[in-house]
Amino acid sequence: MSMVFCYEIFFEKAIVTKITSKRRQKIFELLKNKYEGLKENDLGFFEYSISNKTLLFEYILTEGRNRLNILKVYLDISTIEEDIKQLCKIHFYCKKIDNRDWVEMPVEVFFDTLNNLVKNSSKTVSNIIAETESYISEKRVERDKNKR
């Protein structure tokens, strides 16, 4: 009985891995059509540069009964001043990826299909850039005002 259970778990994991791989490839193709110059980096993220900003896309398929497709967008904040970066880490969800600091924002959709995630990703890309730049500018002004 326990041997059958082990095989069941093994095959379930194998199927999930295959599904994840196929969906990941599909979302990469969809994103590549939308974002010219998108490439997969050494860490498995999809990397895109726009207006001297580096963005990463991460696709996640959650495991369990109700599998969810998740697409996260990351904006590199590694090159900003350390004091402002620390404030960003408090204000935004941030993640350290390959020794660089990134602001994280998920693509929000009502139905989590791959097409919907890609379709709504441009709104998230615009939001993450606008919100981060606005916050950084605001904090620089406050800092400079306090130095006087």
Structure, explained:
The chain is of the alpha+beta class. It has 3 helices and 6 strands; from the N terminus they run H-E-E-E-E-H-E-E-H. It has helices spanning 2-34, 82-91, 114-147; strands at 39-40, 46-50, 53-61, 69-76, 94-97, 100-106. Helix 2 crosses helix 3.
Q: In which range does the helix fraction lie?
A: 40-55%
Biggest sheet strand line-up = 1-2-3-4-6-5
Q: How many helical stretches?
A: 3
Q: How many β-strand stretches?
A: 6
Percent range for β-strand residues: 15-25%
What labels describe this entry?
6-stranded antiparallel β-sheet; 6 strands; alpha+beta; 148 residues
In short:
The chain has 3 helices and 6 strands. By secondary structure, the protein is an alpha+beta fold.
Topology overview:
Blueprint: H1 2-34, E1 39-40, E2 46-50, E3 53-61, E4 69-76, H2 82-91, E5 94-97, E6 100-106, H3 114-147
Antiparallel strand pairs: 1-2, 2-3, 3-4, 4-6, 5-6
Helix pairs in contact: 2-3
